[in-house]
Design goal:
Layout lengths: L1 H15 L3 H9 L6 H12 L3 H15 L2 H8 L7 H11 L7 E4 L4 E4 L3 E7 L5 E5 L11 E2 L9 E5 L7 H13 L2
Antiparallel strand pairs: 1-2, 2-3, 3-4, 4-6, 5-6
Helix pairs in contact: 2-4, 3-4
């Protein structure tokens, strides 16, 4: 896959009229709320084929912010929650080598074959942990998905490191196991 990508990057100036760095520079000055909007822009305004447009947008996003930068921005002003986040990530990493941790602008998705957990610093004092646990009944602690809507089936609100107890870890393991 990497060889094919490199070939595409090498052919970009000839096929599109600009190098990857030139395309990145053009996109840097634009704001798109969705990946598809940026692809559409390159296709309609610059006559770039779909394959090249998709590659350019994807590689431009990779430069936009590192995972560490995204997480740091999420916890700016919520620094007291960061150690809880780190403990959650540390536990998630013990589940298996097939876990992918994907920071986004406002949350961190935990993915196996599909997302099974979502970590979101909701307030200055609370992390909302979203789960995919279809058909599992809600409890006082394992509530409905709340603001996560259909992204998750359940939500647990964490305010303290002690909230990361055995019960919570079992729910995380269950969500991981179900995500195949």
């Amino acid at each position: 896959m990497e060889k094919a990508l490199q070939t595409m990057i090498d052919n970009m100036p000839e096929k599109t009229g600009k190098s990857l760095e030139e395309w990145k520079s053009i996109l840097k000055n634009k704001t798109f709320s969705k990946h598809s909007e940026a692809v559409k822009f390159l296709k309609s305004e610059h006559n770039v084929t779909h394959g090249f447009a998709n590659t350019i947008v994807t590689l431009s996003k990779n430069d936009a912010a590192s995972d560490e930068d995204l997480v740091a921005a999420q916890y700016k002003g919520k620094e007291d929650l960061f150690s809880l986040y780190e403990q959650l990530i540390s536990f998630v990493k013990t589940l298996g080598t097939d876990v992918t941790i994907t920071p986004k602008k406002t949350s961190v998705s935990i993915i196996r074959k599909r997302q099974f957990l979502l970590i979101k610093p909701a307030t200055k004092t609370r992390i909302d942990l979203g789960f995919k646990l279809k058909d599992k009944p809600t409890t006082e602690r394992l509530g409905n998905s709340g603001p996560f809507g259909t992204m998750c089936t359940h939500r647990v609100q964490l305010t303290d490191i002690n909230d990361l107890d055995n019960e919570l870890k079992e729910w995380i393991k269950e969500a991981y196991t179900r995500s195949v």
